[in-house]
Amino acid sequence: MTKKELRQKYKYLRQExxxxxxxxxxxxxxxxxxxxxxxxxxxxxxxxxxxxxKEVHTEFILNILAGKDKEVIVSRSDFSSxxxxxxxxxxxxxxxxxxxxxxxxxxxxxxxSDKIDVVxxxxxxxxxxxxxxxxxxxxxxxxxxxxKPGVIKIGLSFFEAEADAIPHNDTDVSLGxxxxxxRVYKFSV
Length: 189
What we know:
Blueprint: H1 3-15, H2 19-33, E1 43-45, H3 59-67, E2 71-78, E3 83-88, E4 95-97, E5 103-105, E6 118-122, E7 125-126, E8 132-133, H4 139-146, E9 152-156, E10 177-179, E11 184-186
Parallel strand pairs: 1-2, 1-6, 6-9, 9-10
Antiparallel strand pairs: 2-3, 4-5, 7-8, 10-11
């Protein structure tokens, strides 16, 4: 399948999920994350779910991060340059929905990409080699290529890996892990 076909497939599969399904599966994903050896790190970047796209609900992960007293980073997207600016999430951070339905910080303390230790990556689909399909704008590939070499990249998916390899090129950044409600995939990077 092409990336375009994979995007259509996973958008359709997500839309078929009920609110209860997404809540239950998101909680299962958060619980599976607790089994990973990542919790000694300090700076965790997380996406805030786009509700209309039925993305993995990250509030369960946010609760874990708060309970472990981690520094949480969220981003604001610039669609003219397809880049993101990263901000420390604090009790004072104001969030607004962008025109694309993305909850984003209005302002705050900027955090450089190379300071981040762990990135939770949104995706539509992935394969057994850690290649993923996103929405197609390249925001996360650009961002992940700016991170330090040892950054831990963890995809979050409601669905299991594609049986066939996903087409990819040199600018696509592979995942180190992908976590689904059923299992944790670990990839050699």
